[in-house]
Every structure is written in C-alpha cells, then in structure tokens.
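If your schedule permits, I should be very grateful for your opinion on a structural question. I would ask you to consider whether the tokens describe a fold that such a sequence might reasonably adopt. Thank you for your consideration; the sequence and its tokens are set out here.
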Amino acid sequence: MKSWQTCFAALLVGQTLAMIGFGISGPILPLFLEEDLGITDPVRLKTWVGFIHSSSAITLAIFAPIWGNLADYFSRRAMLLRAMFGGGIIFALTAFVTSPAQFLVLKIIQGCLIGTVAAATVLTIAIAPAAQVAFALGLLQTMIALGNSLGPFIGGVLGDFIGYRAAFFSTGVLLALAGLTVLLFVESDKKPDAPDVPKKKFSIIPDFSPIKASPIIFFMMLINFGKNTGISIAMPMLPLFVRELLMITAEGPVMVASSTGIVMGAGAASSAIAAVLVGKFSTRLGYWKTLIFCLIAAAIALLAQGFVTNISQLIVLRIFSSFFIGGATPVLNAILAVSSNKETQGTVFGVNTSVAASGSALGPILGSFAAIMSFRAVFLMSALVFSISAAGTILLHKKTSTKEA
C-alpha cells in the first residue's frame, strides 16, 4: 500500500502536466482560427473565438455536477482519470480539424469530459490526512498555477516555431502522460462502506441538498461565477490585443504567439506565488477580508489594462491582476471546504465547477461583443464584473457577521 505522500506527489505531477497541456492552447487559438482555418474577417473571427471558448465551458457546466456526484459514489481517482484521458483524446483530434465547425464540435465534447481541477481537489481531500488538507490544497493550487504559467509560454513557442497543430497534439500527449501517472502511482480512494453507515443511493442526478442547506456555499458559488466571468471576458481576445500592441511598437518580426505566451505565463506565475502567500496571509486577516481585498485589487488592475500602450505595461498589470485573482481562488475553495461535509464534497465541488464554468462560458461571449467596439473595452468590462463581485462579497460578509453577532 502506497503512502499518502507518494500518492499525493504523483497527483501533483499529473495535475501539473495536465495544466501545462490545457495552457498550451491559450495563446494560439485565435491565431489558429485565422491563419490555419481562414477566418480573416475581424468581426467573424472575434465571434468564433468567443463561441468556441464558451462551448466547452457550457458543456462542462452541465456535466461537472454529474461527475462530482459519481465521484462521491464510485471514486475520485476514476473521475480524474476520465478527465485526463478523455481530454487527451479530444485535444489530439483537434490537431486534425479542417473547419471552425469541426473545432466547435470537439470543444463541446471536450467540455463533457474534462474537469481535472475539481477532480484533483476532491481527490486531494480524500487522500490527505485531516491535519494536512489545508497544506495539500495550497500546494495543489500552487502546482496548478505553475502549470498554467508554463503552458501558455510553451504553447506560444510551439505555435511560432513548429505550428499550431503540433501544439494542440502536444496537449493530447501531455494529458495522456498525466493520466498514466495517476493510474500507476495513485491508489484508489474508494474505501469499503462501514457496516453501520448506510450506503449512498446511486443516482446520476446530483444531490443539491448540501448546497441548499448552506447559504454560504450558495453565495460563494455566485462569487466564483462572477470571478470566472471576469477572468474569461478578456482572455480569449488577449492574443489579438497583443498583436495590436506589437504592430504599433514593433520594429522587427512580430512573434505574436510567443509574446502572448509570455503575457499569459507571467500572469499565471504570479497566481502560483499568490496561492502560497495569500493563503498564509488569509489565516491572519481572515478569509472574508482577504477575499474582498483581492477582488477589489483585481478590478483596479484590470481597469488599468484598458489604457496600456505597450507590451511591458500589459505584462506588469497582468502580473498584478493575476496575483490577486490567484489569491482569491484558494480562499474561495477554503470557505467551501470548511462549509461542507467530507462525504458530499465531490458534489459540492462538482457543482462549484459547473457554476465557475458557466461564468467561463458567459465571459467570452461578453468579451467578443465588447471587442467588436474595442479590444480595450474587454478589460473595462472585466473590471466592472470584479467590482460587482467585490460588492456582493462585502454585502454577504456584513449579513453573515450580523447573524453571528
């Protein structure tokens, strides 16, 4: 029998590989649609980018609660393997598409199968001792952010030097390696049912009673919805905005994919640092105050991005905004973890993934419409959504504090 440290280490390696793979497509998707699939009309390109980004998030929102419920009944490990191997197959097939419609269909199927972050989160909670859960979740979030930082940079380099299709195929390979790592070195978390504990009744439809019973869980999910909406408004349009800045200031060859990878990677690296620093700081200041501060600071940094005039300014501001967004994420997860029972955490985090994915689906659509007016408008819209999320968190905090008093 493997120790929990061995299983957790393998889980970290697998999830990091998966996040690197997912991050590869970020800097190249709009460029692939334009240069390989021939969508040259600017308005049509922005519309396709928005809907393709949203498509997988929509189906993820539908299927995440189902997978989370099955994780509670069967095994968290099985759900993680499903997400990694299923996602790997779909991404590998993406390298062979010949039309935007084919790309869209694969992204829709991709959303039905993926969800590695939620699966890895509940698996971490299942295999780590109670005293080590907070530490393990913080380390998991750090490795997720590390993968997010490396993925866009690798994707940008691959896109510029060996082609966009090779970059997509490499994502499939990385997800397959991630799945093999978990399959070989992480033991199943499914334990025999205790004789005096009634066996959970099997159902595909998730049990939403834990969420209904806790207003804090419900409202935290709404805040998470706003956070993910704000993040995803600008993200799909970032490569096109980077190209616009480079065309204004560049004196030599314009490496759009690589430059976008640096912008995205720098922001994701900042999130990795925030996951550790803000996590420790939040235990002193308190989860609520930390969350409010991070949301407000992120809104300010996003607002400033709408006024940049060069890549250097954009990178610096992306580092700041990503730091505070990254700091908000583990705080939200911590509040959800302490507000839910361990037996139903698969369902809770599955529904939370669904809610977050709904925000990730809405954001690109809003961003595509804003970008028709101006790329800078997408940052202003992102800042507005984060401001609303911060205001909602402040009101919720006041309400819960009044009840406790």
User: Anything to note?
Assistant: Residues 75 and 190 are 5 Å apart (CA to CA). The chain has a mean pLDDT of 87. The first helix runs from residue 4 to 24. The chain is about 80% helix and 0% strand.
